[in-house]
Amino acid sequence: MSRLPGADTAFVDPHKISAYLLNPAHPQNGGKARFFRDHGFAAEKLAASLADHPQRHPVAHEQASPHGRKFIVHCALASPDGRDPCITSVWIMDAGDDRPRLVTAYPRGA
């Protein structure tokens, strides 16, 4: 498989991290906050590790979406506790944009 196009410019919105992925009160969080915090992540480190994820691992699946091209990346996420859990990160390249942005991330198999 190939790498995420534009992986070196991947964008992770800090609001996505603080208001969603690390927010246990978010109604659609589904335990993601506990999972990422249990691996030692705080906002800045999680954003950096997620931005690095598609640079270290190939795209497992690509599909068209109403908004652009969606890319799925699996495997180890560098974590502060050194356990490097396997996750799925989902990226989108909006139509007319060449910079991928994070849609979501979650434990692999969840």
Tell me about this structure.
The chain is of the alpha+beta class. 26% of the residues lie in helices and 29% in strands. The chain contains three helices and four strands; from the N terminus they run H-H-H-E-E-E-E. It has helices at 14-21, 32-38, 43-56; strands at 59-65, 68-76, 86-94, 101-107. It has a four-stranded antiparallel β-sheet with strand order 1-2-3-4, with helices on one face. The two termini are 23 Å apart.
SSE diagram, text form:
Elements: H1 14-21, H2 32-38, H3 43-56, E1 59-65, E2 68-76, E3 86-94, E4 101-107
Antiparallel strand pairs: 1-2, 2-3, 3-4
Summary of the model, kept short:
With 110 residues, this protein is of the alpha+beta class. It has helices at residues 14-21, 32-38, 43-56; strands spanning 59-65, 68-76, 86-94, 101-107.
Structural features:
110 residues; alpha+beta; 4-stranded antiparallel β-sheet; 3 helices
- Low-confidence segments, given as residue ranges, are none
Helix-strand pattern = HHHEEEE
Alpha-carbon Rg, integer: 13 Å
The spatial strand order of the largest sheet comes to 1-2-3-4
Fraction in beta strands = 25-35%
Q: How many helices does DSSP assign?
A: 3
Find the structural class using helix and strand composition. alpha+beta
Helix residue percentage: 25-40%
Name the average pLDDT.
96
